[in-house]
Amino acid sequence: MRNREQYVPGPAAGAEVQKDGERWTLVLVRDLRHPPARVWQALTEPAHLSEWAPFDANRSLASAGPVRLSTVGTPTPQVSESTVRRAEEPKLLEYTWGGNDLRWELEPRGTGTRLTLWHNIHRGFISWGAAGWHICFDVLERFLAGESIGRIVGGEAMKSEGWQRLTAEYARQFGVESPGRPSNTPNR
């Protein structure tokens, strides 16, 4: 599929939550058909990130040190002074973004890669985070296959067909009310 207007996300899959009080860690796993070196480039190079990720980077993420990540898809870009903590090509990438920690692991699987993301996120946004990364991973897969449809993030993602269904599926899976309140907690 090369037409972004035809894109509809598939069902919620490949995600779990590790809970620690209000701060939860979203864990997403996706098997990609491309080798780790190619996936690494997509995770680290600004020109590649601009095809699928929810932020722009002012430099490559392939080395440790300060980096500026600018969230896209919002009325006003949110600029985050971030830090790449670890960059071990092509297997491990860790950085901060907007007060959260992200860890990417790339594991060779045959001719492809098992990509695992850990993202610390407030539980109030856990189903949105899962849905957002789900869509980003879908777009990443198309980009790696040479069928770029351009990133679908922020408000555009939330307006896309399938967003409400996807956030509701992840909310049920994680035991929260969409967009993220625990289902056994009264509304306040």
Automatic annotation (TrEMBL):
Residue stretches making up the Activator of Hsp90 ATPase homologue 1/2-like C-terminal domain: 34-144
Protein name per UniProt: SRPBCC family protein
Gene3D superfamilies noted in UniProt: 3.30.530.20
CDD domains xrefs: SRPBCC_CalC_Aha1-like_6 (cd08899)
Family that this chain belongs to: Belongs to the AHA1 family.
